[in-house]
Amino acid sequence: MSQIKEYIAANEERFLEELFELIRIPSISAKGEHKGDMQRCAEHWRQHLLALGATKAEIYQTEGHPIVYGEYIQDPNLPSILVYAHYDVMPAEPLELWKSGPFEPEVRDGRIWARGADDDKGQSMIQVKGFETALKLGLVRCNVKFLFEGEEEIGSTHLEAFLQGHKEMLSAEAIIVSDTSMVSDEIPSLTTGLRGLAYWELEVTGPNRDLHSGHFGGAVGNPINELCKLIAKIQDERGRITIPGFYDDVVDLTQEERDMIARVPFDEAKYRAAIDVDAVWGEEGYSTLERNSCRPSFDVCGIWGGYQGEGAKTVLPSKAYAKVSCRLVAAQDHHKISQAFMDYIKAIAPKHIRVEVRPTHGGEAYLCPIDLPAYRAAEEAVEVAFGVRPLAVRRGGSIPIIAVFERVLGIKTVLMGFGLESNAIHSPNENMRLDFFRKGIESVAEFYKRFPR
Whole-prediction pTM value? Predict the structure, then answer.
């Protein structure tokens, strides 16, 4: 047994109790009644980092929830790693679906059950205990900084301003984040890409009031009909998005990346059965896993208008509405795409209706180079802990703050997550496997053994 494994085994009971102490604080950022718990959780982390060996740990108040910053500086001339995590959690409702109290952690069937067991208290504790293990064994050869926020689950509202005001303090060679998942329990992976997002609301107006469809149908443009026509023009029959210039900045997949995606276990029949569809559909020339992670997409997220009550009402409505979004990929600027979408809609809208397009929110995509020194160290570390070389995979979701780190701080992030789909984050009975908790800590300790390279 390696020195790292021995330390983890000898201290596992303490590691778990320290995680449980953190979980018992119901730090729900979305609910005002938990404001005191948010402050209490931040103070808990501050004290824990100091007890661990941090040379400094402080709480920074914001207009929302506090930010915790800590650091272990052994030599200012050494490179630094910045560890980011969040201590806020999602609300636990519906409470009746939990098999045990969401803030009373339990170990059952080889898993930790509680709100935050994975997202992100369990994963943040993996980072901290991995650092502790490496520190106690004399393996840390860099400076380490910790940035823990309390608003990730509500949009990281005040974090960018904090980054802007503390660039020098947060300088590092790379950022390490454990807030993602692996491909499966048998195939470890590191997330190398996240899609960005652009989101709009459409409002189509025709006549100044709802009209009798017998008296006016066929003579006046129907806003719902016209909205459907507009939406139908956003994609062609090959699944390509038709907005002019939409693909100008899209970074194509390399053959190496496509080969690695092809290695990810994927049963299309099971995939279809799980969501009860007879066939998959998407952009021609790409596999399902490529489409849902590495290619941009367009979706109607909601559409409404006209009469929706019981029975029939022969009405030609005055207005129709839709919420639509695009998932974006590396190098696509969500501001540029948002403007291009608005220009396109206005250009193709017929004169017999009025269209208002309101952008609501968005975020940039992110791509981590697999030749980044910190990535290579993480890759080797995970291979040691899990016994299998991790795949480099892109994910279809978005974590907007990762792109903000790069834009504001100029630092790349290595997404070193240890979650699984079965962990049920954001849902009742959230959990984390004990073996992944151990292997995650080992991976982080092995990372410090290898960084800097």
Answer: 0.86
